[in-house]
Amino acid sequence: MTDIQLIGSPMAPEAEEVVPALVGAERVLQPLARRGVFRRLMRDWTARIGFVLVVLLVLAAVLAPLLAPHEPLALDGGSFESPSWSHPFGTDRLGRDLFSRILFGARLSLGTAFFASLLITFAAVFVGSVTGFLGGAVDSVVMRVVDTILAFPSLLLAIVVAGLFKPSLWSLMLALASVWWVGYARIVRGLVLAVRERQFVTAARVAGGRSSRILIRHILPNVLPPVIVLATLEMGTLILAISALSFLGLGAQPPTPEWGAMLNEGKNHFFSAPHLMLFPGLAISAAVLGFNLLGDGLRDVLDPKS
Amino acid sequence: MRQTTSQAQPTVTVDASTAGRPLLEVRDLRTEYRSPSGIVRAVDGVSFTINPGEVLAVVGESGCGKTATALSILGLIPRHAGQVVGGQVLFEGEDLLSVRAERLRQIRGDRIAMIFQEPTLDPVRRIGDQISEVLRAHRALSHHDAWNQAVEFLGLVGIPRAAERARDYPHQFSGGMRQRALIAMAVALRPDLLIADEPTTALDVTIQAQILELLLEVRRSLGMAILLITHDLGIVAGFAERVMVMYGGRKVEEAPVRSLYRQPKHPYTWGLLGCTTRLDGNRRDRLPQITGAPPSLISPPTGCRFAPRCPHAQELCRASYPALLEVGDRHRAACHFAEGEEWGSS
Amino acid sequence: MRRYIVRRLASLAVVLWGVSILAFALGSLAPGDPARLLMERTLGHQATDEEVAGMRQELGLDRPAVEQYVSWAGGAVRGDLGTSWSNRNDQVSDLLLERLPRTVMLAVTAMLTAVIVAVPLGVAAARRRNSVTDHASRVAALLGASVPGFFVAYLLMFVFGVRLRLLPIFGFDSPQHLVLPSITLALGSAAILTRLTRSSLLEVLGEDYIRVGRAMGLRSRAVLFRHGLRNAVIPILTVIGLSFGHLLAGAVIVEWIFNWPGLGKLALDGIHARDYPLIQGFVLFTGTVFVLMNLAIDLAYVWADPRVRFQGQGA
Fold first, then answer.
1. Which of the listed residues C45, C77, C109 is the one where a domain comes to its end?
2. CA C109, CA C107: separation in Å to the nearest integer?
3. B30-46, pLDDT tens digit by residue?
4. H or E element: which one contains C244?
5. Pairing of strands B193-197, B112-115
6. Of the candidates B107, B116, B169, which has its C-beta nearest C212's C-beta?
7. Across the interface, which of C150, C192, C272 has its CB nearest the CB of A3?
């Protein structure tokens, strides 16, 4: 359901010429300012569930130190204890409390996803608006780079890039951003091209405005909102990618209580202590589901066709 | 009545037993649409009849329920969008609203066919194949025979080099030619009734007259009745025998064409007639004589639905809905003052 | 039409060239000194600077980057992707070709599974909009798109492998070994495909020509399949093509979990072992496959849509 806007029109099947995601972006541009987005969003039961999940997740991340019954790294229980009152999700091999680790994991997952999307948005807006605004050789070279990276499934390339570095949450974040920015950059470029032709920009040019000033004053304000919305919609995908890479050992390393890394740790004791995988797995699922539900609902609300 | 023996027989045969009986009789039809803001009463108790071979025009602004009426007759209201909630649609005495789905399917296309405003065909299939498919859905025909009949009918509706053009895809046809192809598809089974929903609205002005002429020609040679739905009283004059005017989901006036043009009884009809002087006028134009917007069919006004826009409205009009009364020979109108005053003379 | 194909092939060549540069760069831009890494791996202990320098010369790493790229790409054109640093020093190309069929088998099985489940489900949902089926398919699709495959894999293993003992969970020895990995892999694609089938079919079913078909008394089955699904097939094909790329990416994770000796596992082992020639070869190889697959999707359009087929023929 997240890929629907990738579909090109059957009349113009050439990937290079169709920027279908742009259509989606432009659609969200105007009505964003419309009032009552939230109220209309909450009319849909799936979006409501998504909202609740995301709010719970954010609360868990913010309040982790208050809510957690134990230190996430403290070895203060027996090995592989099953869920009990003192350890609601049980304990791992070293006797660490799983519930506390998952609460702190929310910070890492959300935080990494948030900073990664910040990085992606920043890179995309910079590259996309500069190339879109300047055009010419710079534009065509950068767009060929974009085409090349887009030829790969993002996750695959992110795995390879992350594998080149010493694994950590930072290298994971950089790897994700280095791959993910391209799709956004293409969208930004399309938006800039569209905005550039509008009257008020032409007017500013005729009036002799400096390029950088036109870019910042007139173009960016029109480009940023849809990109930010897109980044929000993709939060679920990013969380999924982060946990996938960590699960493969290419991101957060033990003893970091990152959910994907916890799954990786747990898989060695899967047969004897399945709860080690169950709870981190459920946490990832809930987070991704929450953002996807919210994103889907938002997309519906912002789509003037509905 | 139903021509099962000879496919090529071009004249109408009116069976003695069915003579005098209407071909289609719609009684108190009620259709509702669902919308985010509530139930829309698109058709609100409409009754009318069509006799075999007759041409009836249904006229009104968009949103007056004329298309909903046509779709209801054939059971084509999409399930998620709305439904027929009451009334009867008697086709040769058989109530189409209560027959089984398969029976209704057999009637569609074969006995009652319909063409629409937008001349669209399946973009990925050849035109000849699409017409053959309709033929084969109703008759036991071989591929070959169906194709030949399709070509024959494409020729009949004026497609040049029909045998060749039948192999074309819809995008290779112009809008007017597609509408011709759709007419060929609709009449290929020699239906008794053809419902034409704004068949010329989406076409160029120059093509409009040709399509109307074609419809009349087809009717002359095949002898079916036509229910023409239009917002344009201008095209009705030379085409229909009787006219029914709809407003706000109800029938407000009904008369033989001549009588309606000479002595329109309902102020709404008079307003409509006021804008029929130019055939080439922009069809999206608002009716110049009638100010204001059509009524909301979600919570319609209690009295006469036209009262808020009517220049002659009285207290009575806002209080109670006028009954549909005989005001002349086969001429009926739903206006409290239809008999008292000639709106046109003022 | 011909102009379109020529343009398409030209842009294909440019992207392939880009893919080769990217593949090469990924291997040579990596931090650390590959010569030292390889020398110490072969020696099993700290290498002296002379040893490392010798290794660097042997690998050609002392030459300028452009020269290295040209000789690497030249080899690649002839099918020579160099020697793997792990895997008993096998040829990279041999390794890739040996593993490819297994990954293709997995991906194709998964794709078929996804299509067989998703298309009927999407059709049923579109046909009965807002029905129980529709809502159930929506929930299933949401879960399928949100629950990570690497979590589902273990759930499946636990239920079918450990509890019910119905299916083997690791390895590659029998057709039964294919079941769990391909289900895991199919999940995400099936979710997307279900929703897409529903939405594109709904869009087509709202078209006027569908109403025409119904008004002309075609059987509802004929309207649904011959006209509805036939027209919805274009976006569906695109998503199947795109999902194939995602499947191959997902295969990396799934193969690793189920110990399925395919391309993905090869690559991941290569990544963990810092086997740069293997990584470069893998990126070049898969990149080429994806680019060609996109071309195939575009050609499928031409097959599926006469409007494209007849473009430029002066219709």
1. C77
2. 5
3. 999 988 788 889 999 99
4. helix C230-258
5. parallel
6. B116
7. C192
Nearest residue of C to residue A179, measured between CA atoms: C22
Name chain C contacts of B73, Cβ cutoff 8 Å: none
pLDDT for the residue C314: 38
Q: What is the CATH number of domain A57-302?
A: 1.10.3720.10
Range of the structural domain that residue C6 is part of: 2-77
Query: Quick count: other Cβ atoms within 10 Å of Cβ C74?
Result: 10
pTM of the model: 0.79
**Residue among C130, C218, C305 whose CB faces B124 most closely:** C305
CA distance C42 to C173: 32
- C35/C141 same-domain check: no
What does the block give as tokens for A146? 């974009």
Domain end call among C37, C52, C77: C77
Is the Cβ of C222 closer than 8 Å to some Cβ of chain A? no
Strands B225-230 and B55-59: parallel
Which homologous superfamily is B1-111+191-291 in?
Answer: P-loop containing nucleotide triphosphate hydrolases (3.40.50.300)
Q: Are B252 and B44 in contact (CB under 8 A)?
A: no
Task: Give domain status of residue C73, yes or no.
Answer: yes
Give pLDDT tens digits for A222-274: 788 888 888 888 899 999 999 999 999 998 888 888 899 989 888 888 777 78
* SS3 state at B38: strand
Nearest to C69 by CA among C103, C23, C7: C23
Tell me whether A161 touches chain C (CB under 8 Å): yes
B191-215 pLDDT, tens per residue? 999 999 999 888 888 888 899 999 9
Residues C204 and C290 in one domain: yes
Look at residues C154, C130, C145, C219 and name the one whose alpha carbon lies nearest to residue C186: C145
Q: Specify if C276 maps to a domain.
A: yes
Whether C156 is in a domain gets the answer yes
Domain ranges of chain A: 57-302
The whole-angstrom separation of Cα C267 and Cα A160 is 8
- The CATH number for C265's domain is 1.10.3720.10
